[in-house]
């Protein structure tokens, strides 16, 4: 089947039929930042960090399929500032205390804040009061750090395919909930996988939080997106 030709920030790219802009960008060595996307999970388009411009419209790169001749704008000042503002919004909406967080150095939100050189957010801090809850024998849910990406809802399943997590309530009260009986049956391996899928320190497998010291973790070694060509000026 013929490849689809399109451009991202002027770079000529090729996509397989059915590929999303995000998938095709990755295949062509172009980084599009994202938080809710996770390899192997159905895209949700919920965080909007991957928003790109096509013509005069804005779309989530993780859900929008590529079309022949598409002209995609990605690393341009207004979109980059929009992404930075989303990161800032997520920081003020929860309680993200990086120096004490078990996920520091492995956290994608923190890594993006570094990428966008976030200092003082442009929005006021909300300081919400939220719970920390045990999820079965091996996991903790730290609601203060949850960014509602829904990766756990899509990705944490029992061996017979039942979803352990769900999203409940709406607007400012929206939160992640879980089925206690299903959570009780999650193995230690499943708990570790859930922790790895969570982009922040909201899902933590018990007893391994500081096994790898801060300073030697994933984004301590290489900034997020550094495996791609850097188009920022
Ligand atoms: S617990 Fe983690 S994976 Fe689940 S919605 Fe919150 S941030 Fe996303």
Task: Please characterize this protein's 3D structure.
There is one protein chain. With 233 residues, the chain is α+β, with helices and mostly antiparallel strands. The protein has 2 domains: 72 residues, Ubiquitin-like (UB roll), CATH 3.10.20; 128 residues, Alpha-Beta Plaits, CATH 3.30.70. The protein is 24% helix and 17% strand. The radius of gyration is 18 Å and the shape is globular. The structure holds iron/sulfur cluster. Iron/sulfur cluster binds next to helix 4.
Please supply descriptive tags for the structure shown above.
10 strands, alpha+beta, Ubiquitin-like (UB roll), 3-stranded antiparallel sheet, 233 residues, Alpha-Beta Plaits, binds iron/sulfur cluster, 24% helix, 2 domains, 7 helices, 5-stranded mixed sheet
Explain briefly what this protein structure is.
This protein is an alpha+beta fold and 233 residues long.
Level-1 CATH class name of the largest domain? Alpha Beta
Output the radius of gyration.
18 Å
Mean pLDDT reading: 96
Query: Secondary-structure element order, as H and E?
Result: EEHEEEHHEEHEEHHEH
Q: What's the tally of helices?
A: 7
Instruction: Please tell me the total number of domains.
Output: 2
- Largest sheet, strands/sense/barrel: 5 strands, mixed
Strand order of the largest sheet: 2-1-5-3-4
Structural class: alpha+beta
CATH architecture of the largest domain: 2-Layer Sandwich
Percentage of β-strand residues: 15-25%
Instruction: Enter the CATH topology name of the largest domain.
Output: Alpha-Beta Plaits
């Amino acid at each position: 089947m013929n490849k689809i030709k399109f451009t991202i920030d002027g770079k000529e790219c090729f996509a397989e039929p059915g590929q999303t802009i995000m998938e095709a960008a990755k295949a062509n060595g172009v980084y599009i930042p994202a938080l809710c996307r996770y390899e192997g999970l159905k895209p949700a388009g919920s965080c909007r960090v991957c928003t790109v411009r096509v013509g005069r419209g804005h779309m989530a790169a993780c859900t929008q399929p590529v079309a022949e001749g598409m002209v995609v704008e990605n690393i341009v000042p207004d979109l980059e500032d929009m992404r930075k503002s989303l990161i800032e919004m997520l920081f003020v909406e929860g309680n993200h205390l990086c120096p004490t967080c078990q996920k520091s150095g492995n956290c994608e939100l923190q890594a993006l804040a570094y990428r966008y050189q976030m200092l003082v957010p442009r929005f006021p801090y909300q300081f919400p009061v939220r719970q920390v809850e045990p999820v079965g024998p091996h996991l903790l849910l730290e609601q203060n750090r949850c960014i509602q990406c829904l990766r756990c809802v899509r990705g944490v399943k029992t061996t017979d395919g039942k979803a352990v997590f769900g999203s409940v309530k709406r607007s400012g009260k929206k939160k992640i909930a879980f089925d206690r009986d299903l959570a009780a049956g999650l193995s230690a391996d499943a708990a570790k996988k859930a922790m790895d899928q969570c982009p922040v320190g909201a899902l933590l497998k018990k007893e391994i939080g500081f096994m790898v010291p801060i300073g030697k973790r994933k984004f301590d070694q290489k900034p997020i997106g550094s495996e791609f060509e850097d188009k920022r000026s």
